[in-house]
Amino acid sequence: MSVVDGLIAGAGSVVEAAGYAGLALVMLAETVLPIPSEVVLPLVGLQITAGQMLFWAAAPAATVGSVLGAWMLYALGRLGGRPMALRLPRFLGITEKRLARTESWFSRRGDLIVLLGRLVPGVRCLVSIPAGTLRMPVRRFLVLTALGSLAWNSALLGLGMWLADRWETVLGAVSSATPYAMAAIAVGGLLTLALRSTRCPTRD
């Protein structure tokens, strides 16, 4: 079993044992651990279909965890600046060049990047850092993060409910299609807009 598989199994156990509070905790942990919400939330959707959880409670619980995790990274960026951000775990993908580039995009399209960045795998953690280092107003950051996270979490829960009788299909679909399809559609359009606005160079 890989590390990620172990984390997914552990996340499922936490949700099963602690319910909605456990779900919020798992989504908070996703900020600093490689726990893919693209797998965890559809599995929760299966539990909703089975009557073990309620959608109207699961979606807000997951969003609370997402927002708390994003706020932690925002606070690190705001209080510790770029040096603190660059000392975060390497698997988050936060390098000096990526952070500088994201800050350049953020300076022109900050609101849009925070809102839509919550919908893109691999970008969700990164967008919180420049929001902090560039001192986006905390209330605006939290509102945009909550809206984007609620949309993302609800969509994944709904996917699990829709494919409830084919759980293997759920796992295959979200683990393989999401990083490519979502990234191609969402981050492609978003970053193209940002690049045109800022004329930021794309070479490393």
UniProtKB/TrEMBL annotation:
Keywords noted in UniProt: Cell membrane, Membrane, Transmembrane, Transmembrane helix
GO CC, one annotated term: plasma membrane
Keyword field contains Protein biosynthesis: no
Protein origin, superkingdom: Bacteria
Membrane-spanning segments: 7-33, 53-77, 141-164, 170-195
Pfam families from the UniProt entry: VTT_dom
Keyword Membrane: yes
Main localization of the protein described in the UniProt heading: membrane
Compartments it resides in: Cell membrane
Membrane topology of the entry: Multi-pass membrane protein
InterPro entries according to UniProt: DedA_domain (IPR051311), VTT_dom (IPR032816)
Domain spans labelled VTT: 42-160
Family: Belongs to the DedA family.
Name of this protein: Membrane protein DedA, SNARE-associated domain
Naturally occurring in which organism (per UniProt): Blastococcus mobilis
